């Protein structure tokens, strides 16, 4: 199990369970919604929500995991419909 693994310097990982969305399909078929795909910023966390019964539970887990940051949920369904989540679309930009 991953929970038994360690970092390169031998420190154990802290595994934080987070619920999965209950919604498995939209009007076009199967979806791969995930609360794991969030963005940690200076002072904040931008989290995916899906108008799902587990949205608030997931936000509560993230607030506990990041107690010194403001956790804000954003409806990520339009992003997922286009193939990504909040973390995916905010990644590295090449330098000019």
Q: Could you walk me through the main structural features you see in this protein, from its secondary elements to its overall organization?
A:
With 96 residues, the protein is an alpha+beta fold. 21% of the residues lie in helices and 20% in strands. The chain has helices at 55-65, 77-81, 86-89, and strands spanning 25-26, 29-30, 39-41, 44-49, 70-75. Strands 3-4-5 form a three-stranded mixed beta sheet, with helices on one face. A hairpin with a 2-residue loop joins strand 3 and strand 4. The radius of gyration is 15 Å and the shape is globular. The model has no long low-confidence stretch (mean pLDDT 91).
Distance between the termini: 42 Å
* Helix and strand run: EEEEHEHH
Q: Return residue spans where pLDDT drops below 50 for at least 5 consecutive residues.
A: none
Secondary-structure content class:
alpha+beta
Task: Give the biggest beta sheet.
Answer: 3 strands, mixed
Shape summary: globular
Main sheet: strand order: 3-4-5
> How large is the share of residues in beta strands?
15-25%
Number of helices: 3
Number of distinct beta strands? 5
Radius of gyration: 15 Å
Determine the mean pLDDT.
91
Helix residue percentage: 10-25%
């Amino acid at each position: 199990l991953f929970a038994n693994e360690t970092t390169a310097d031998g420190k154990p990982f802290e595994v934080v369970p987070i619920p999965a969305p209950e919604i498995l399909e939209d009007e076009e078929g199967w979806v791969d919604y995930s609360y794991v795909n969030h963005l940690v910023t200076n002072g904040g966390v931008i989290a995916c929500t899906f108008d799902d019964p587990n949205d608030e539970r997931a936000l509560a887990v993230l607030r506990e995991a990041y107690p010194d940051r403001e956790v804000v949920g954003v409806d990520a369904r339009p992003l997922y419909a286009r193939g990504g989540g909040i973390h995916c679309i905010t990644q590295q930009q090449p330098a000019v």
